[in-house]
UniProtKB/TrEMBL annotation, chain A:
Residue stretches making up the FAD dependent oxidoreductase central domain: 134-188
Organism placement in taxonomy: Eukaryota, Metazoa, Chordata, Craniata, Vertebrata
Signal peptide: none
Encoding gene, per UniProt annotation: Pdpr
Pfam families according to UniProt: DAO (PF01266), FAO_M (PF16350), GCV_T (PF01571), GCV_T_C (PF08669)
UniProt name for this protein: Pyruvate dehydrogenase phosphatase regulatory subunit, mitochondrial isoform X2
Keyword annotations: Pyruvate
From TrEMBL, chain B:
Subunit structure: Heterodimer of a catalytic (PDP1) and a regulatory (PDPR) subunit.
Family: Belongs to the PP2C family.
Name of this protein: [Pyruvate dehydrogenase [acetyl-transferring]]-phosphatase 1, mitochondrial
Organism: Mesocricetus auratus
InterPro entries hit by this protein: PP2C, PP2C_BS, PPM-type-like_dom_sf, PPM-type_phosphatase-like_dom
Required cofactor(s): Mn(2+); Mg(2+)
């Protein structure tokens, strides 16, 4: 096919047919990603068998059919060779790079998911920077080796997951898609209870978390039909959960969060934490501090909440996927001292999040401790009894900005406490809620989340986290110099909240993340996360605004004034929607308040 | 051919159709054989079991048996093509397989008149009227599948850390009844106190009592024979002192594979006596136990116990009757013991063990690991002639049957071929009434001069597994009569590997265009589609055994017809089929080999 070869130096991809076609030394090279991949080397076979893989025409048949359907003329061409060689795939279709969490100085770049040729240059550059400077110049958390733990290295897990991942190469990838294989590995003790009540699950770091709860009389679409970029089928379900959080009380199982305990015999714990974290942790016992764990450049390595349990012991809560990374970071920077103990207690506690104005009523009934704001102000942690169970760590925070409590329950009490909370809560209209409701609540309150909005290249000053930094706490903590300098020079990007104005939730494509932000018609950055706010009845996106110079595209200082003076648009799939930018959460402004004469009898029905 | 000859032939075909109730006997069987006149599936509305039948019962007696030879010659399709066989065109056009009964029993002349069939011409005409509107009633593919899969069972050896260190990957088994109730049995178990796995198929005749008993008991006898002296002592002490017993076998059973609760105590006592004797016999030398010897001893001992239990009897009348039924019926057995690379096959009778070997070029070849004990085996004929006086040389095997009656030359039970005439008479007389009323049990084989004529002693074959030995097929003669061993191995091999490994297409050197290759691949895929219907190799094999047309491909029409035969007719077209397919773990087998080199 000389014509083809002259015309075409790039590759043709037919995603529906799962094939690619390209020029090869004057002939044609065609391959693809079949629906029925065959995992290899998961049985401990000798990798030398790569050379022994024979041509497998029957396996290639569907791809050959697509090729001939796309280019029927090829029928008369002679076959030169069928090459059968294995490719590497990872459990989440992203490559693996970075430093090993257990062997310092051991760097990995592997699992290119068959895109090694195209990604090789960039991946090599970042890895080189990483090895030389200690960090790459772009945020590569999504590719970081430390996003995986030992739990994802089980052979059976890999065998099953790669068979799902590989066909996805040429499949349409929709937002909020959950892998179907390798599930139910880590679960909360309440899993069965919640599942029986209609929970639908998502998985993070092997842990099953409820997305939302399907009411008994409601049907959702089948998995394949539920794929959409528009308004999803769970919209109404999440709405009722959010409403319940706002007006009554909801319980969310948040056991997946990574939980560490740091204790020492003397002041070592406090000292090392003061060095590692940006906020002042020398607070009275029982206080909770939101703080960043920063790197030398002031960027977030982790964003967490730390409760001071007593003088010498701290309880640290970080995002689920921080389990490996945070552990490695702490071990790297904490002094080797046998009197300083770091323990991963993730598996020891079940976490229940009681969100809503009535949460305090529910807890009051279950405990003798006074729960009024005087006795139990926000960001406080107390060990108390709930129901029959002693030693429950109750914290007055919800990760959403809503009133409520987090309950850290030793796992053997989990079912008891859950049952007690549900039965007492009935009269306050309690119901189960999932992570989608939580997400909507936190984004409308402008709560940035590590891994989505925050990463190793964003500093607290860039995202309105000044309150989480105490530069003058008397200790030269990691990243302090960088922050001081930034404070002096100003920031080059700023996290803002965008409220979409003319977006029709029912008819328009939804923002998910990664949509371009336009300021006065010029590109200024990308969104990092978004959610529909049921209170504002608008879509809310979070994203960084940059100030690119008109002359040479260089980044310039972004001030609050710069943000406020701009006219913004968010581009969703080529359509621009007007948006208002906010630097601080809006609450009372839009908030829909139920009027007295709107109250119905049905509002008194238990949920 | 005279009428009487036809008669006996007909009876022979139908004899074992189905023992009604518990005791197989020709009288009730013949009564039921009126079913045979209307061979169409009952669904099509032929009034088979209706109360109107007896109305015709005395008019124009025409033995049904007359027509069985005709079926073979396709005559019936010509004569009654529109009547009875319009739904079986295919079956008639290709000569149907008429099952040869294992046990032929020609009753006393007087008895023959007694059990004369009552079918008549009127029924044919009746049948014709009902079936004269040509309709096509085939089973749908899901219906066919539900019949084929009803008894399927799969066992996968559990993996540890993604690895299986056993030389067995797992096994698939299945059975398809032709008799009602089925007379075949199967067993599979892992030996817990020694290494290794036991798998066996058992083909019963003259009822299922013996095959049932053997399927429950034989593996215990084998396992006990394999146990070292210390373990036997430990077990005996535990029984004696009422302590918890060591588990000996881990059974892998289909829910339909039942164990009789009632006889459990009796069976245990016999087994205990056996191991007590083994303990007493121990000379103190802790020599390695020879598997071959253990298998032979276990077979012989169990047969001996079956015989003894029947002679001694049991105070419980139900049990007493049971042990007699077990002893008077018979069963063949083909058992494989796999331990690492050591494969022993012990065979008694005409079931067969076949090893599937994949050659280097990917093709499949069959290695037979057992010898059939029947008239086709010269060495067996020789053995029988040597074991009996010269003057019996002509009578001991007649018409390819032992004493003109029994097809397999070795079997469990069948005391009619083992006990002296005196003993038989004595046991029957002192036995329960059901036994006394039974003509078959009373009937003494002709030319019965120097019993025993039959033994349960197995022939044991040893095979050392090699990486190219991919699987073992154990099956009763129901399979081997319909399929050539080479086809069996090829079908299973292609099923187990998917079509990929056995006949890979390679372009190497040839000038093939993409279009040609595409055509070839599409064809291959179409051929494979039937494989994907089955998740079980044994089911897949049965599908081929029953449904293969003359081109060796599964023909749904034929399959549908074969499976919708009425119970009474099914036995004429096929025998009970029981199959176990054991898949070997080539990696582990290869590792063993490397270790020893």
């Amino acid at each position: 096919m000389p014509v083809f070869c002259q015309l075409c130096w790039s590759a043709i991809v037919d995603a529906d047919g799962r094939i690619y076609i390209r020029n090869w030394q004057g002939g044609i090279l065609s391959g693809g990603f079949e629906k029925n991949p065959k995992p290899i080397f998961t049985e401990g076979k000798n990798q030398l068998e790569i050379q022994n893989l024979r041509e497998d025409w029957d396996h290639f048949e569907p791809l050959l059919s697509s090729l001939l359907r796309r280019m029927p003329v090829l029928e008369t061409l002679e076959i030169l060779k069928l090459v059968n060689c294995p490719e590497t795939f990872t459990p989440d279709m992203k490559c693996i790079m970075g430093e090993s969490p257990v062997v310092q100085g051991y760097f990995v770049l592997a699992g290119m998911n068959s895109a090694g040729l195209s990604l090789g240059g960039g991946a090599g550059k970042f890895l080189a920077e990483w090895m030389v400077y200690g960090y790459p110049t772009e945020n590569v958390w999504e590719l970081d080796l430390q996003r995986f733990g030992a739990l994802q290295s089980s052979r059976t897990f890999l065998r099953h997951r790669v068979m799902e991942v590989m066909p996805l190469m040429y499949d349409l990838k929709v937002p909020r898609w959950d892998f179907q294989t390798g599930r139910q590995l880590r679960t909360s003790p309440l899993y069965d209870r919640l599942d029986a009540q209609g929970a639908r699950w998502m998985e993070k770091h092997g842990f099953e978390r409820p997305k939302y709860f399907v009411p008994p009389n409601k049907d959702l679409l089948a998995l394949e039909q539920s794929k959409t970029f528009y308004k999803p089928d769970w919209f109404d379900i999440v709405e009722s959960e959010v409403k319940c959080c706002k007006e009554a009380v909801c319980v969310i199982d948040m056991s997946s969060f990574t939980k560490f305990e740091i204790t020492s015999t003397g002041d070592q714990a406090l000292e090392s934490l003061q060095y590692l974290f940006s906020n002042d942790l020398d607070v009275p016992v029982g206080h909770i501090v939101h703080t960043g764990m920063l790197n030398e450049c002031g960027g977030y390595e982790n964003d967490c909440s730390i409760a001071r349990l007593n003088k010498r012991s701290f309880f640290m809560i970080s995002p689920t996927d921080q389990q490996v990374h945070c552990w490695a970071w702490l071990n790297k920077y904490m002094p080797k001292d046998s009197n300083l103990l770091l323990e991963d207690v993730t598996w020891k506690y079940t976490a229940l999040n009681l969100i809503g104005p009535r949460a305090v009523d529910v807890l009051s009934e279950l405990s003798y401790a006074p729960m009024t704001p005087d006795h139990f102000p926000t960001l406080f942690c107390k060990e108390m009894s709930v129901g029959y169970a002693n030693g429950i760590r109750v914290m007055s925070m919800t990760h959403t900005g809503e009133p409520g409590f987090m309950l850290y329950i030793p796992i053997e009490y989990a079912l008891h406490v859950y049952n007690e909370v549900m039965s007492v809560g009935q009269k306050y209209g309690i119901r189960n809620a999932g992570y989608y409701a939580l997400r909507s609540l936190r984004i409308e309150k402008f709560f940035a989340f590590w891994g989505q909005d925050l990463n190793t290249l964003t500093t607290p000053l860039e995202c309105g986290g000044e309150s989480r930094v105490k530069l003058e706490k008397g200790i030269d903590f990691i990243g302090r110099d960088a922050l001081l300098q930034q404070k002096q020079n100003g920031v080059y990007k700023r996290l803002a909240m965008f409220i979409l104005d003319d977006h029709d939730t029912d008819l328009d494509l939804w923002p998910w993340w990664g949509e371009p932000i336009y300021r006065n018609g010029k590109y200024a950055g990308k969104t990092t996360s978004s959610a529909y706010s049921y209170t504002l009845e608008r879509h809310v996106c979070l994203g960084y605004v940059h100030n690119f110079s008109e002359d040479n595209g260089e980044e310039q200082v972004v001030t609050a004034d710069f943000i406020n003076r701009g006219e913004y648009e968010i581009d969703i799939a080529g359509h621009r929607f007007q948006a208002k930018a906010k630097l601080y959460p809006v609450t009372s402004f839009f908030t829909h308040k139920r009027r007295k004469d709107d109250v119905e009898l049905s509002d008194f029905h238990g949920k | 051919m005279s009428i009487s000859a036809l008669l006996s032939m007909g009876r022979c075909c139908c004899r074992c159709c189905c023992p009604r109730g518990l005791w197989m006997l020709s009288a009730p069987c013949c009564d039921d054989r009126r079913m045979c006149v209307c061979p169409g599936p009952r669904r099509i509305g032929i009034p088979v079991r209706t109360s109107s039948l007896p109305l015709f019962s005395d008019a124009m007696p025409a033995p049904t048996q007359l027509f069985f030879p005709l079926i073979r010659n396709c005559e019936l399709s010509r004569i009654y093509g529109t009547a009875c066989y319009c739904h079986h065109k295919h079956l008639c056009c290709s000569p149907p397989y008429i099952a040869q009964n294992r046990l032929r029993y020609t009753p006393h002349p007087a008895y023959a008149t007694f059990c004369r069939p009552r079918e008549n011409w009127w029924q044919y005409t009746q049948g014709r009227r009902y079936a004269s509107t040509p309709q096509k009633f085939y089973l749908t593919p899901p219906q066919v599948n539900s019949i084929l899969k009803a008894n399927e069972y799969s066992f996968k050896v559990p993996e540890f850390d993604g690895k299986n260190v056993s030389s067995i990957l797992g096994f698939d088994s299945n059975q398809l009844p032709a008799n009602a109730p089925i007379e075949d049995r199967r067993s599979a178990a892992t030996c817990l106190q020694t290494r290794g796995m036991l798998l066996g198929v058992f083909d019963g005749h003259a009822g299922c009592a013996c095959s049932q008993a053997v399927s429950e008991r034989l593996f215990y006898y084998i396992a006990v024979s394999l146990l070292p002296h210390e373990t036997l002592l430990e077990i005996e002490n535990a029984v004696e002192s009422g302590r918890a017993l060591l588990p000996i076998l881990q059974w892998h059973k289909h829910p339909n594979d039942y164990f009789s609760k009632e006889a459990s105590k009796l069976y245990f006592n016999s087994l205990r006596t056996y191991w007590q004797e083994l303990i007493d016999l121990n000379t103190g030398e802790s020599a390695d136990i020879d598997v071959k010897e253990a298998l032979i001893n276990a077979f012989k001992r169990l047969d001996n116990d079956i015989s003894l239990e029947a002679q001694v009897g049991d105070p419980n009348s139900f049990l007493n009757y049971l042990v007699l039924r077990v002893a008077f019926s018979g069963a063949t057995a083909c058992v494989a013991h796999v331990d690492g690379v050591d494969l022993h096959v012990a065979n008694t009778g005409d079931s067969r063990a076949m090893l599937g070997v994949q050659e280097e070029d990917g093709s499949w070849s069959a290695v037979t690991l057992s010898n059939d004990h029947n008239a086709q085996n010269e060495r067996e004929l020789e053995r029988l002639k040597l074991e009996h006086p010269k003057n019996e040389a002509k009578s001991v095997v007649k018409q390819d049957r032992l004493l003109g009656l029994l097809m397999p030359f070795r079997a469990f039970g069948d005391v009619k071929f083992k006990w002296s005439i005196d003993l038989q008479k004595r046991v029957i007389e002192s036995g329960p009434d059901q036994l006394n009323d039974n003509e078959y049990t009373k009937f003494i084989p002709p030319n019965y001069h120097t019993p025993p004529y039959l033994t349960a002693e197995p022939e044991v074959t040893y095979h050392r597994l090699r990486p190219q030995d991919k699987f073992l097929v154990l099956a009763t003669d129901g399979l081997w009569e319909t399929m050539h061993r080479q086809d069996v191995v090829r079908i299973v091999g292609e099923y187990l590997t998917g079509m990929h490994q056995q006949q890979p297409i390679a372009v190497g050197g040839y000038k093939v265009t993409l279009g040609q290759m595409h055509g070839l691949l599409t064809e291959r895929r179409a051929k494979m589609s039937s494989v994907f219907e089955d998740q079980n190799a044994a089911t897949h094999l049965i599908r081929h055994a029953v449904g293969n047309n003359e081109f060796g491909a599964v023909d749904h029409e034929r399959l549908s017809k074969m499976l919708s035969l009425p119970e009474e007719l099914a036995r004429m077209y096929r025998d009970d089929i029981t199959i176990i397919v054991v898949q070997f773990n080539s990696h582990v087998v290869g590792a063993y080999q490397n270790q020893e080199q």
